[in-house]
Amino acid sequence: MNTQDSASAHPTAQSPTPLRIDVVSDVMCPWCIIGYRQLASALQATDTDYELHWHPFELNPDMPAEGQNLREHLAEKYGATPAQSEQNRAQITKLGDDLGFDFQFVPEMRMHNTFNAHQLLHWAETQNRKHDLKQALFSAHFTHQRDLSDVSVLADIAAEIGLDRDQALAVLQDQRFAAPVREVQNFWRSQDINGVPAVIFDQKHLVSGAQGIENFTHILKQLAEMRQA
Fold this sequence. Notes:
This protein has 229 residues and is an alpha+beta fold. It has helices at residues 30-45, 70-78, 82-99, 115-126, 130-142, 151-160, 165-174, 178-190, 213-228; strands at 19-25, 50-56, 68-69, 110-111, 198-201, 205-208.
């Protein structure tokens, strides 16, 4: 499988050929940050030499600018009852706690369109800060309930990790990366990626969903054996 979008690399510098990991995700997706944290723990546990590349996916590409209440959205999209939503949030919060991520679900929490966020991430890659911004966006949404469809909020978050706020705002206002982001999104959809997180190892092994630390560890060990064979 070929890819069209690179992102910040985080190798451990032990091997001349680090394991390439492509992660297709959306910052509106709680399972994406859970899956990443699980994978990161497994990578550390196996002392894997790797390069991580983030890629854009929109859970709700048709979401209007004002967004939608999360509970209403889950009921409308998945038919989730209030009790099911509460149970799901409790499960996600517990998983987050175990992984060191703070989910703060509140009744007024909203889902937002993330096309601008993905454009900002595309720009952050040119500054070698895509990974850092991705993590900041997850926290901004799930811990602090910030509106990631608001260009001013996105520019603020960029500034908070040390990027130039004026440049970030200009990128969002003139939409200079809209076309390349759409191109990358379309590429991954053409590869039958219709849900996230989607993790692709060595550009050929697809693993879907938050698999858990134990399963990711097993996968990494299997891949290491295959790469040594």
